[in-house]
Write a structure and sequence with these properties.
conserved putative lor/sdh protein from methanococcus maripaludis s2 fold; 6-stranded antiparallel barrel; 8 helices; 18 strands; elongated
Length: 440
């Protein structure tokens, strides 16, 4: 057992040890505090910038063309004559769909229905003659450059169909390809000459044709125009004399009703017809009309006499048109345009959806979402451009807009010495951006 002096020495040593441990803890905490302060000074500004300013999207202001167009749905109207069958029978077309024919041209023959057997025999006999000739002269099947180019042009249209999803045009392409093949085969047939192995079959074919002609009635064109096979009961409704009486509901697309009663005929096929039935239309190709319905808010973009273009799904060409009338209804407006070009491209159509292309505006193109503080009365807005790595607000004039883009320009009365210009860098989404904010 130690003395009192020893106990006092031990207590003093323990106290000294505690002080040293406490001092080490204080030094350790002080070092950690210094590290935290250093981290805050170095990394927090960078983190702040990354969180609040690191995702600011910018783009370069460039010059481009903006197409101003109005969506519509309506009907094509033609100066046309309906062709009715004089009797019950079978129609044999002598012109392909959409073909221009001269005045007094024999574009169809109508024979008795009892002649269907003879027609089938003629068709089969022609095929046998062509096949037999081709087997003995295989070189005639080699397509020439013109034939290959024509086929390639039709096949290339399939790409446009896939892009526009206008699958109704497939029937037209198929009919055209069949027509090209028929014309090639017809050329082979006519060039068979007097070869003995086909001469007997040709004589047999001629006898069949003579039998067919005994009951045939020829249908002639009353004037020069375009032949359209098939007919519906709405020709009188959709006529030039009645187009100003059409209501908005008459212009809405209805594919089911539009295609009902239309003869989906392929080239050189024959088809049944009843007496007084409309089986074809002869269209005057001098002029056509498109009567359509558009949103009422878009009607102020059009006025009588404007020269615009019509873009129809499935037709590559833009059809030049003239606005003849703009009439306001309760919720929509009715527009009548006329045209005299590319009639053969759309003559088979009635109800369609199309774009009225009003104009193409060239200037500084920018997304509408990049504009803020827009004034709808004078059509001005603000845009943030980047100058010396800082956001600078510029007031601009909206020249035109379509869908999600606009064409802009500087204010004509502005005294700004450094207005917006081409190749300026602008903020794509200016929400929460402040004037003078640093933008890298």
């Amino acid at each position: 057992m130690g003395t009192t002096k020893d106990k006092r020495i031990n207590r003093s040593s323990e106290a000294s040890l505690k002080k040293r441990k406490a001092k080490k803890k204080r030094n350790r905490r002080r070092a950690v505090r210094y590290v935290l302060i250093f981290f805050a000074l170095v990394y927090l500004p960078a983190m702040w910038k990354w969180i609040f300013h690191g995702h600011i999207e910018t783009d370069v202001l460039h010059s481009d063309t903006l197409e101003i167009a109005v969506k519509s749905e309506g009907v094509f109207i033609w100066d046309e004559t309906c062709v009715k069958s004089p009797k019950d029978g079978i129609v044999i077309p002598k012109a392909k769909q959409g073909e221009r024919v001269p005045n007094k041209f024999d574009f169809a023959i109508i024979v008795d229905r009892d002649s269907k057997r003879i027609l089938s025999e003629i068709e089969n006999l022609e095929k046998n003659i062509i096949r037999q000739f081709a087997e003995n002269n295989p070189e005639v099947l080699e397509p020439d450059d013109e034939f290959k180019n024509q086929v390639q042009n039709e096949v290339s249209k399939l790409t446009d169909i896939a892009v526009n999803r206008n699958f109704t045009a497939i029937d037209e392409i198929r009919a055209t390809l069949e027509n090209l093949l028929y014309q090639r085969n017809r050329k082979i047939f006519e060039n068979t000459g007097d070869r003995l192995y086909v001469e007997d079959k040709k004589r047999e074919l001629e006898i069949l044709r003579q039998k067919l002609n005994e009951s045939a009635v020829t249908v002639k064109s009353e004037y020069s125009g375009i032949v359209v096979w098939g007919g519906t009961s709405d020709e009188e409704k959709y006529s030039p004399d009645n187009m100003k009486n059409l209501q908005i509901e008459d212009l809405e697309t209805n594919n089911e009703n539009d295609e009902a009663g239309t003869l989906k005929m392929r080239y050189e096929q024959f088809f049944d017809v009843s007496a007084d039935q409309i089986f074809a239309r002869l269209v005057n190709n001098d002029k056509g009309w498109y009567v359509c319905a558009i949103n009422k808010k878009d009607s102020d973009k059009l006025k009588t006499g404007d020269e615009i273009s019509l873009r129809v799904d499935g037709v590559k060409e833009l059809i030049p048109c003239t606005v003849e009338a703009v009439d306001a209804f309760e919720n929509k407006s009715r527009v009548i345009v006329s045209f005299d070009r590319y009639i053969e491209k759309v003559v088979q159509m009635r109800h369609v959806k199309a774009d009225l292309v009003i104009e193409n505006v060239e200037g500084l193109k920018i997304p509408l979402r990049s504009l803020i503080n827009r004034n709808i009365y004078d059509n001005t807005a603000d845009v943030f451009v980047v100058r010396a790595n800082r956001a600078v607000r510029k007031r601009i004039k909206i020249i035109a807009e379509q869908d999600s883009f606009a064409i802009i320009d500087k204010l004509s009365e502005s005294t700004d010495t450094s207005p917006i210009k081409i190749f300026d860098i602008y903020v794509v989404n200016p929400q929460n951006i402040e004037e003078g904010q640093v933008i890298n």
